Amino acid sequence: KAKNKGRNSQAIFQEDMRTHSVSQFQLEMDLRDAGEDQQFQLYYQPILDLNIGKIAGFEALIRWQHPNRGLVPPIEFIEIAEDTGMILAMGEWILKEACSQVQQWQQQFPQQPPLFIGVNLSSRQFLQPNLATTIANIVHHYRLDPRGLKLELTESVAMNDVDSAIQQLTYLKDEGLHISLDDFGTGYSSLSYLHRLPIDSLKIDKSFVDRMETNQENENIVGTIVTLAQRLNLDIVAEGVETIDQARLLKGLQCQYAQGYYFSKPVPRNQATKLLSQNKIWQIDDV
Ligand code: C2E
Ligand code: MG
Ligand code: MG
Ligand code: MG
After folding, report:
1. DSSP for residue 25
2. How far apart, in whole angstroms, are the C-alpha atoms of residue 11 and residue 28?
3. What are the boundaries of the signal sequence (predicted)?
4. ipTM above 0.85, yes or no
5. Are the beta carbons of 194 and 223 closer than 8 angstroms?
6. Pocket around ligand 1 at a 6 A CB cut-off
7. C-alpha–C-alpha distance, residues 181 and 156, integer Å
8. What is the mean pLDDT of each run of 10 residues along the chain (287 residues)?
9. With the CA atoms of 244, 186, 190 and 247 taken in that order, what torsion angle do they form, in degrees rounded to the nearest 10?
């Protein structure tokens, strides 16, 4: 009986593998059509300046409206897009869309400093030797004030090939663009690299922000990252702020920028425009 059971679970396992790879394969096929069928959309999540309680910019986040599966989150398809190389065309589309959008917003809602847009770069994109010139061309094409584009890359993307990263980032910085290190604290970058990389800001990962309220030690970690950023002359953004208490603590720790569901989830373009025209001020009394 035990033998039978063993064989059955083996069969089930194989069946499972098959369904899994079939659906992965199907997703990959669907992904190939998605661009042409305009199933991709950028959503925008506000990034607040905590000092004034107003929107300073947005992060662009890709969404895939699949014809039968509904909204497919990026974690389910970015990796496939990377493995197949589709990320290159997709990434270029994202940059164009984001630049053209923020340029429009800068015109419609002028403020000092101008509204910015954060755009995520994947490792495959970053390994393209012509990435920097491609991005510079897009910025020129849309006549975007380059301070308005903030490229977000994770520590692992930057650490992949540090020398080439320094070269690409230096070029982009000379073009006037802004570089952010995303999910800061979750990777394994050494402080000496952090110092060598020409970056402009750190985004504190959500996991640190989450635990901040419950534990003094975690609040100290966030405070220490903020101090580190100040010492290195970097801007600092907290990710994943979900409660007013987190927002207050962050403001008290002199973290200037924050984004998260407490302020707004990522929203489609029209809703983001509406948020800007409301010119809403979030009242955050620091502690
Ligand atoms: P990320 O760049 O760290 O983006 C932040 C993620 O946290 C987003 O998830 C956002 O919706 C989510 N988030 C923001 N505030 C909160 C909050 O208060 N609570 C919670 N629970 N989540 C919050 P999303 O849009 O699902 O994106 C996940 C990841 O996929 C991104 O992480 C990024 O690495 C990647 N991604 C998204 N869009 C793009 C893109 O256009 N290009 C590339 N290369 N990667 C992208
Ligand atoms: Mg990001
Ligand atoms: Mg992030
Ligand atoms: Mg993240």
Report:
1. H
2. 25
3. none
4. yes
5. no
6. 45, 60-62, 73-75, 78, 94, 120-122, 152, 182-183, 240-242, 259-261, 266
7. 10
8. 53 60 84 92 98 98 94 93 94 98 97 96 90 94 95 89 89 94 84 86 95 87 95 96 96 97 98 97 88
9. 0
